[in-house]
Amino acid sequence: MEKENNKQQVVESVSISAEAEAENEPLIEDEMERSKVGIMRALCDRQDPSTKEVDDLMIRRFLRARDMDIEKASALFLKYLAWKKTVLPKGHIPESEIANDLSHHKVCMQGHDKKGRPILVIVGNRHNPSKGNPEEFKR
Predict the structure, then answer these.
(1) Composition bias, kind Low complexity: at what positions (predicted)?
(2) What is the DSSP string of 37-76?
(3) Rounded-to-integer distance, Cα 101 and Cα 126, Å
(4) Using CA atoms, how far apart are residues 121 and 131, in angstroms rounded to an integer?
(5) Strands 118-122 and 107-112
(6) pLDDT recorded at residue 98
(7) Full 3-state SS string of 86-99
(8) What pTM did the predictor assign?
(9) Tens-place pLDDT, residues 56-69
(10) C-alpha span between 32 and 91 (Å, rounded)
(11) Can you tell me whether residue 121 is helix, strand or coil?
């Protein structure tokens, strides 16, 4: 009986410590992510000053996509920024370029989120690929 109680106490203490470790892991991961985001931001800021306009969540997304490898994530992120500058030279798509899609009411604006970014609702069943210009669809 005494051995069973000791076993139960050991099992309980092991499970409690395992739970504590599991709770601490995300904190360590978050600290690691925060430090890597800071390092990546500093690295990218030196190469392209426009990275200051991007928030930490975007940088974290690229880090996670490259398994937290700062060099690979930075290279991918800088390529993304270069691509974005060529596709969206004004920083946005003018309404005149997507007038056809707007006329079909495929997209509705539903206000702004807490950070002031627009919230869009996209109605996919209103898209007919046989109608319209493929180049316009890419935009």
Answers:
(1) 10-19
(2) HHHHHHHHHHH-GGGGGS-HHHHHHHHHHTTT-HHHHHHH
(3) 9
(4) 21
(5) antiparallel
(6) 76
(7) HHCCCCCCCHHHHH
(8) 0.60
(9) 999 999 999 999 99
(10) 32
(11) strand
DSSP label at 106? -
Tokens found for residue 108: 């509705």
Min mean pLDDT across 39-48, 70-79, 111-120 is at 111-120
> Which amino acid, residue 86?
T
Token pair in block for residue 55? 């928030």
Contact call for residues 47 and 78 (beta carbons, < 8 A): yes
Identify the residue whose tokens are 């990275």: 51
Query: pLDDT at residue 105 above 70?
Result: yes
Token pair 């069973």 is at which residue? 4
From residue 97, alpha-carbon distances to 6, 87, 92 in Å are 74, 12, 11
The domains of the chain, with CATH numbers, are 2-87 (1.10.8), 95-133 (no CATH)
Quote the tokens at residue 64: 């996670």
65 vs 135, which has greater pLDDT?
65
Residue 103 identity: S
* Residue 1 DSSP label: -
Q: How far apart are CA 40 and CA 88, in angstroms?
A: 24
Structure tokens at 65: 């996509």
